[in-house]
Amino acid sequence: MAKELPNMNVVFVGHVDAGKSTIVGRAMFDGGIVPEQEMKKLREEAEKHGKAGFEFAYIMDNIKEERERGVTIDLSYKKLMTKKWQITIIDAPGHRDFVKNMITGASQADSAFLVIAAPSGVQPQTTEHLWLLRTMGVKNLCIAINKMDSVDYKEDKFNQVKEDVGKLLQGVGIVPDQTTFIACSGLQGDNIINKSEKMDWYKGPTILEQFDLFPAPEPATNLPMRMPVQDVYDITGIGTVPVGKVETGVMKVGQKVKVLPGRTGTGIEGELRTIEAHHEQLPSADAGDNVGINIRGVGKKDIARGDVVCDAAKPIPIVEEFIATITVINHPTVLAKGYTPVFHVHTAQVPCQFIELIAQIDPRTGETIKENPDFLKNGDTAKVKIKPVGNLALETQKDNPLMSRFAVRDAGATVAAGMCTEIVKQK
Q: Distance between CA 100 and CA 67 in Å, rounded?
């Protein structure tokens, strides 16, 4: 058997109805992953629900409720082979109430497509999506300007949207001239897998070609093993199966592991019995792999979403308090000491209190603008001290950048995002 292609996780992000799921579904169909038979069934079902044209989206939105509402709720995963990669596509929801799922999705991605609909262009949430991708450390970004069929494939419309998005990119420190913009239509299949004949003015890559133009993800296999738990299943004949992405390190069958914080806050130890991906048993899994595992000695009651499976010899710290650099993105008023929103860290959600605003800093230089500010407003970047209300597994940017990032959410919006720089461990 030929050696398997390396994996790259790519997230599709964008406003609701920008056409993310349709682009992904079209790539799956034109890429030969979804057979004609199944496509015909989906097409009939879409028409039955009065959603003609949604058949491609249905490939990803395979949850019944989503089909009826025409909205992506959960993160969906599908594999697509290119010349260089096996691409795991993460289709992240665009709806406001699903931003928290999107945070989880973005934190797993190596590269991202920001999908923008040509007719509507930049939306209020577009800036928020960009900030999240930046904070979550997704460096490689491509902008897909979709629904070009709805604007008669006009070049001037594409250029207008490109210019508007370019301004936003500069605001988050991304150079527009070094960013690829793709003119496409998921519904009609223009520039997804196949080159379009309707836009001879467009000289750039297709979505499929862009996958191979993204730089290779830096392997995080040299860091200690960490797998944040996304879900826990009970599978007949196997038992308890936590599922997630190995963020860093290498996981091996027989390895001694510790689940932290676990139900007790002090963790529970066990031994890796099985590792499985795409219905295949594996001897090991590397950083970047999405897997399901079974741990001897760890049952359904011991492990939950938000726990981290780690190497027992090098466990992740549970923090008493921590210092972080944050950027306030979207707070309704101002952020002050004592504020206790929910922190989304890897797959965990833990309320945390801001106990000290240490300094406001210039995000471009890292220099202090003001010591101990009374409050922080939108756009401010600051060094702050935070105390979790509950058990939180977290690492510093220096020790493990992939386990140091977080988003701060309150009342359905992303208030701030940041990364941990210092920790005080629990006694």
A: 21
Do 325 and 235 have their domain in common?
no
Q: pTM score, two decimals?
A: 0.64
In a domain, 295, yes or no: yes
- Residue from 410, 112, 391, 152 nearest 268 by CA: 391
Identify the domain containing residue 171 by its residue range: 7-213
The CA distances from residue 281 to 174, 238, 287, 294, in Å, are: 40, 12, 17, 11
For the chain, give percent helix, strand, coil, nearest 5.
20, 35, 40
418 and 327, same structural domain?
Answer: yes
Residue 172 or 258, more confident? 258
| C-alpha distances in Å from residue 179, one per residue of 43, 113, 125, 204 | 35, 11, 20, 11
* Domains of the chain: total: 3
Are 171 and 74 in a shared domain? yes
Q: pLDDT tens across 268-302, in order?
A: 999 999 999 877 899 999 988 889 999 999 998 99
Is the pLDDT confidence value at 76 over 90?
no
> CA neighbours within 13 Å on the CB side: how many for 323?
9
Q: Give me the chain's average pLDDT, please.
A: 85
Does one domain contain both 283 and 260?
Answer: yes
| Integer Cα distance of 325 and 283 in angstroms | 38
Q: Do residues 325 and 393 touch, judged by C-beta distance below 8 A?
A: no
pLDDT digits (tens, 9 = 90+) for 233-282: 988 888 899 999 898 999 999 999 999 999 888 899 999 999 998 778 99
Q: Does some domain include residue 231?
A: yes
SS3 state of residue 207 = helix
Looking at residue 254, its amino acid is: G
The answer to the question of residue 292 being in a domain is yes
Q: What is the CATH number of the domain that holds 232?
A: 2.40.30.10
Spatial CA neighbour of 322 closest among 232, 393, 256, 223: 393
